[in-house]
Amino acid sequence: TGTPAFDYQRPITTLISEQSARTPDAVALRFAQQSMTYAELEQASNQLAHCLNVRGIGAEDKVALVFERSLEMVISILAVVKAGAAYVPLEPSLPLERIAYIASNSGLSLFLGDDSLARLDSLGDLAERVTYQSLSLADYPSQLPGHDIPATQLAYVIYTSGSTGKPKGVGNQHSAIYNRIAWQQSAYPIGADDKVLQKTPFGFDVSVWEFFWPLMYGAELVIAEPGAHKDSTQLLDTINHFGVTTLHFVPSMLQAFIGHESVHTATSIRRILCSGEALPSEVQAQALSKLPLAKLYNLYGPTEAAVDVSHFTCHGDPALPVPIGAPIAGIRLYVLDRAL
After folding, report:
1. pLDDT digit string (tens) for 171-222?
2. Contacts of 173 (CB under 8 A, 6+ apart)
3. Would you say 301 and 307 are in contact if contact means Cβ atoms under 8 Å apart?
4. Are strands 110-113 and 128-131 parallel, antiparallel or unpaired?
5. Mean pLDDT (whole number) for 53-59
6. AMP-dependent synthetase/ligase domain: from which residue to which, for each copy (predicted)?
7. Which domains does the chain have, with CATH numbers?
8. CA gap 230, 180 in Å, rounded
């Protein structure tokens, strides 16, 4: 049994707004040559949230976001949640049949996206399609919408592959994702001197903490360019250029990354979080040997349980196994035999 769950008092987006008030001039987002301060991000996401509310989007509504990685992607995620709705991330590269199924199955109220929305012309009867660039937001209020968002309200819906072959929608409520991120901050504290890399495709639940965790605690969110998560050289360049301190890898990509001939130059990395696959002992040992200034953590959990349910601090010994570890706050793990 883990420690008691963190008490939900207000939405994670409200915590980000409070952080924005404390450090308005600090950089919140970086993407390629672009950047946004906390004040700029707050204003943009608040105005978009009001725009969504005026369009009738509110509590428990689902808004599909169809974006390549960009500043606008992050603004839109925050705005949907601030509007009281839940975001449904859809990678633009997904097959149209899968997007159509998700749109129909989830009961979408709106498609919001970048130019990728042009691919979805044939889905116009499922929900209205609006591009971010087409919206004129300057006339909307710049303050946080005054919604009372209870602990059980839906924050996001992510579609997994599904054991039946059909995508399965997994919704998570505000208290669950707050608990997960608050625990992560207590276990691996970050602050104003940290730079967290957002590289996980946003259709995977690891991306949820990548988006929200740094912005809740005053760190800088560095957004990798589209496709960079597949290219170790591009990742290394991004890490070194921006001084990334914190990032996530699935173990197979960590193995590829530490195999890069210049990985030893990534001296800004302080913490690596791993999940999504079993972490081989040899891989964690090599990672800690090649990146001696970094800590490496192995996490495990299903999408249904708000990203992760257990954690383990890696030891660096190639002869010892890497377990899934102990439960995080608010979680109880059961070890069952074949008879369940």
Report:
1. 999 999 999 999 999 999 999 999 999 999 999 999 999 999 999 999 999 9
2. 151, 152, 153, 154, 155
3. yes
4. parallel
5. 97
6. 18-338
7. 33-176 (3.40.50.980), 177-327 (3.40.50.980)
8. 26
